[in-house]
Predict the structure.
Amino acid sequence: MGILRSLLYAYVAILMAAALLSWFPSSSDGMRQTKRFLARLTEPVIAPVRRMLPQTGGIDFSIFLVTFVLLFIARSL
């Protein structure tokens, strides 16, 4: 269970990195590549949640919901 918990925490860190980088413009090629890489890791999980949530005028709460659920699962293990 320790390994699974560690993987969940690592994925939450990836989610947070993707969320933080979304606030900054992609001014360099390295930043664009990093954002693309993080999107490939996070979008398969976030996109279905995003489709289920109502539109909130530009604020994407799906990443917060996914993070909350993953942290709940990790702490329950």
